[in-house]
Amino acid sequence: MKVFFQQQAVNLPTVMKMIQGKYRPFPPVNLSDRQWPSRIITRAPIWCSVDLRDGNQALANPMTVDQKLELFQTLVKCGFKEIEVGFPSASNTEFAFIRRLIEENLVPDDVWIQVLVQAREELIERTFESLVGAKKVIIHLYNSTSPAQRRVVFGKSQAEIVRIAVQGAQWIRERLSRLQDTEVILQYSPESFSATEVEFAREISEAVMGVWQPTPERKMILNLPDTVEVATPNVYADQIEWMGRNIKWRDSLIVSLHTHNDRGTGVAATELGLLAGADRVEGTLFGNGERTGNVDIVTVALNLFMHGIDPELDFSDINAVREVYERTTGMTVPQRQPYAGELVFTAFSGSHQDAIKKGLAEWATGSRRHWDVPYLAIDPRDISREYSETVRVNGQSGKAGIAYLLETEFGLELPKDMQREFGPIASDEVDKLGREVIGSELKDMFWREYVERKTPWSLVHFHADGATGGMFSCNATLKRDGVAVQVAGLGNGPIDAFAHALMAIGVRMFGVADYKEHSLSAGTSASAIAYVKIGMVDGPTRWGAGVDTSIELASVCAVLSALNRF
Ligand code: KIV
Ligand code: ZN
Questions:
Q1: The pTM is what?
Q2: Of 157, 267, 535, 539, most Cβ neighbours within 10 A?
Q3: Distance 227 CA to ligand 1 centre (A)
Q4: Where are the domains of the chain?
Q5: What is the CATH number of domain 453-564?
Q6: Which atom of ligand 1 is nearest to the CA of 290?
């Protein structure tokens, strides 16, 4: 059962006051010849998902066994080879889940399941019970080491805190013979490492190593958690590099990172920690976890992918992963979450949309080897996101985004000059709505503005004949403000003949200035659309559009649509 505490009402300050001395800068690590700033990451770390433990313990409603199983299978599908499946001594659900994984043989042969336990004998005992029959396990022991934890929670000296860790390590070592047919890796975390003095973190880690006696052939994992982010990520990197350079038997260790996100720099701390020499990363999908969450492994992995480094995790169907994550955890991936958020491949600003459209067009030619499309960090299709998602329209959008949606969603290929005319009309309407609009709303606007303009002029009947000498004649019945009008004219094509017929009854147009047509859909009811620009003798021009199954009639309607817009 989880109990939530309601904060008592207090008089809150109306301005944020800096109380002298209440907060202080974090002391730097003494490492003047640090190496990590001039390194680059060249390969993927070992990944360990802690979704089913750190992630699960941070949920208002922890996952059921079935939900955990579904998420576990998704993590396996993504390629995780190490998955912390729970804290078996902490709850019956965790214990039952682990037993189910083992008894129903649900763990692939190449996947290590990891379990977390504190340095308490009865908890270690229960943890071992949960592991009977497992093929590959990581037993993860932790105790807290920071000054605040030593002082406030345990009221113990450094030496006493070391004794807790050593005792826990011994209880584990004593029980290892019970897991004869199981491959075991041991892991130790000095919890709250980043807030601990590096010298003490080294001392306690070495004390545990003294009990477990790792070798280069049988390494143990030393996990160095940024349990609560307390400094800028470079400080964490210094701490990791310091440990790597000063701890004994470095070659018998897999150094692991476990960052949280209290200062919003969990990803940065992890990346700098890798530069500083770490081998392994613990984290969760989309950054779920205690408080502000654990590091988002999706982001770290896709950041590698973006630099051409195989992340050795498969997020090629990120939407599917996100769907399972949201359903099983009840969490939502924020719209701006790197790579996975709904809006991250979306540009609202007109100039951005234009640049993206041009960049995508250049990429489609195949002339470039390296991805270099403005405003798109990676090709959205690589993770099954859609190009169509890249352009959405709101009041800030320009003609390019509008034209892109009309073309990609409805096959409307507006001439460039017509895009310049319709763009501001649509933008004005969208601005008035004060929200984003979808493609069909834009199409409705286009239809209202052009295709459905039937006053004052509308078409009743039109007939054209090719005549001798390449000339065409036409007869048409029109309505002007509901009154029938007969017109007839000659021209070098049916539309030219129609324009002349209109001029003959006093319409002050000089003719067709631009024209484009294309079919709209395949099949028997296929229709065509014509776009026609007409000019008046005194200067102004307007575009019109008409739709009909006959391209000739579509063009005539387009002329009247343009005329109706003066
Ligand atoms: O954040 C943390 O320190 C942890 C430990 C148990 C590794 O989750
Ligand atoms: Zn954690």
A1: 0.77
A2: 267
A3: 6
A4: 21-329, 350-448, 453-564
A5: 3.30.160.270
A6: 1
